[in-house]
Amino acid sequence: MLKWVHENARKLGISRDKVVVAGESAGGGLSAALSLMARDKKEYKLAFQLLIYPMLDDRTAINSDPGANFGEFVWTRSANKYAWQAYLGDKAGGPQTPPYAAAGRATDLAGLPPTFIGVGSMDLFLKEDLDYATRLMAAAVPTEVMVVPGAYHVFDMYVPDAELSRRFMDAYCAALKRTLNL
Hints:
The protein is α/β, with parallel strands linked by helices. It has helices spanning 2-7, 9-12, 26-41, 77-88, 126-138, 155-158, 163-180, and strands spanning 20-24, 48-52, 115-120, 143-148.
């Protein structure tokens, strides 16, 4: 898809310099992995990665204690384990999981595009998302993080009209606009 977008940018009326990847949950993890691959292959440039409560690290699926109230609402530890096993099979949580499958496994994050990561304070992915954000910043990647107090996984989809959900969407839209100079 990234190749197609770049090759058809003119037909689409978009600038190749403003191509963004974005995703929520597992889609956020896939977006992060695509950013790693794009950086490594050096074929197509990304301007930004918008990662909304991204599912980044398969090791979360085997962690027996993510903390009080983490993963108790909507996306549970058992659902997470099932999803990673469906995606990776027996490799889930093991040492052979490649970063292109679980971006949280990447050791080198330098050269990735500017990033926004948003996650709720009660989301099972909070720790892995904050870890990834911290490592992005340590690699000098411009990174904005928003932790939404009291929010669980995909809270904004369950209550899209809630003030908290609207502020969350406003924040990540503003980050995207700033990066793209819109």
